[in-house]
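Running log. JK asked me to keep both predictions on one page so they can be read side by side. First protein, sequence followed by its tokens:
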Amino acid sequence: MKAQRVLTILAVILTIGLAMPTAQAQSTAPAKAANVVLVHGAWADGSSWAEVIPYLQAAGLKVTAVQNPLTSLEDSVAATRRALALQDGPTVLVAHSWGGTVISEVGTDPKVTALVYVAARAPDADEDFVALSGKFPQGAARAGIENHDGLTKLSEDAFLKYFANGVEPAKAKVLYAVQWPTAASIFAGRTTVAAWRSKPSWYAVSKQDQTINPDLERFLAKRMNATTVELDAGHLSLVSHPKEVADLILAAAGQK
């Protein structure tokens, strides 16, 4: 009787095991994408992706870097939607820094197969991200924000020391020269959706980041259940570690 009970239990366990997919089966391979749209963050322009783009193009991907206006969340979302509309087929949407807010809003588009966040914000729908960030120690770069008539820039000292830490000094100075004025109001902007809740996501944490706290980045990556890499880099990992960032994008595009 006892032996029969054990056999019955084993049979039930086996049945459940066959009905439920294994962890490996659940983690399906990324959908193949032929296009990549890159969204830059605050105090930057599309040229911040210049080191990453050649790796993606060499892999045969069509790459578009959005010139994000940084005047409002709505304007930046519109610019990214325009770039996405021009893509022919499956597309990986990638963002750095504040640009993560934009792709969290735009990423529900049917063309988007995957999202990649590079030391980026990843707000939930209607989340007060400023309040969330306040739960983590503030990065040193924030002290260098200068506000001129509602538009912000980083001081040269803060940009070179904290925003571009880990970047070759000559290159960092060029990036400082092309930094784009950013409306102070965009940081409080809230998304209406969180695309990472429905799309597979990848995240590159910058361990030496002094703009967004690395522990906040880890929190965001874990919350979205992202495939995550940690880079020994400052905030501008896309400049200092372009191959590693490109490899993560290629993985999201099903090319790795």
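And the second, directly underneath as requested:
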Amino acid sequence: MMSEPYEEIVEGETYLRMPPGERHELICSRLHDLIATSLTDISTTRLLPRRSVVQIASGTIVRPDIALVTTATGKIWLVAEIISSDDHRPDTVIKKQIYEELNIPRLWMIDPRYDNVEVYHGSQYGLMLKGILAGRESLTEQLLPTLNVIIADLFGEQTGE
């Protein structure tokens, strides 16, 4: 669990982010583990450690909760941001705009406030909302054929955690 505040820099401006709460970290760990398992037989993609420092451009450094990069180029193609209820603007507005400008192929905005996941796909027009998943719906990704996350299970407080 991350217990210290951390910094992100957007266009030269530093944002001090508070350490995520326990539920945030449980969701992050759960999803990170599920993605790691789905990558067992895939050599074209690498899963970065949680909240790795990623330099998007000169003067812009972010720490996405989950990031997948192509092995060949190191370019990010999927980001998952778990929204913190007490500090949601950097994720829902600022970083979302950065990812749109970067033309990232996939963005998952995971919102524990409403127990849902917004799935965005990059397009020539920017990020396009493909769906909002909740309850028993499944989060899948064509480029990760074995990944199938039931949304309720992602958010559920499982015993032993």
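Observation for JK regarding the second prediction: The mean pLDDT is 89.
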